[in-house]
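User: Predict the structure for this protein chain, please.
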Amino acid sequence: MDNRPIGFFDSGLGGLTSIPNIFANMPNERVIYFGDTARTPYGSKALSTIRQYAFQIADFLVSKDVKMLVIACNTISATCLDQLRERFPDIPILGIIDPAARAVAAACTKDNNIGIIATKATISSGDYIKKIKGFNHELMVYEKATPAFVPLIEEGIIENDIMDLTIHYYMDDFMKENNIDTLVLGCTHYPLIKKNIERIYEGIRIINPSREIVNPVAHILRERDALADDKNDRENIFYASDLSETFSRMIQKILETESSDLILKFKNLEI
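Assistant: Here is the predicted structure, written as structure tokens:
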């Protein structure tokens, strides 16, 4: 057993969408989360900059004695996973793309048309197509960069006409031209607009990587005999490089239903 916390990090608040799934399925676990809200979005930045930021955040979380690192960010997972594992060889590090690709391959056949929406950096990496086709090379996969989604979500612009218009702008032609029937939310911010997408494109099947990450986290901890026991005090700490009102409001919104009994600590941190 290991009662140390699990470290989660993302370029902003998007990675928070994976936390309720962890709490619901692994209620004894504690989390330390870092959202780089001051420097988001990462998806349009240079690869060298993304890696610099990822190393800084990982260094910080490792200094907090986490037992595992979960990269709750598709952009970082697509560009920095191998480098982070080399930097911290003694800590299990899980990216979000591999579990999502496995879920896509399990759910789809060659008769499906699979769409990936993500940041520019994630799309440019080709990681989703490579990983999905690694499980099943017959699958038809199409990608679309949707860079404006992240800054809008970070500002809390979600349930309104501005977000709906942005979805139409990026996705209408993409969905129609490729006859997309299965859509992968290739950024952890995007589950926050899942309802918008389902309303606009009725009948679409959505695969949410923020949910798919739970089983591999549990598997790795179980394999290492590192699951927390029931004596855990359940204190969870959420750091941000810019602890804005929006970040605090969104974290409460995302965790409200699933975690009303959690102890939450919010801290502002510059790195």
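The radius of gyration is 18 Å.
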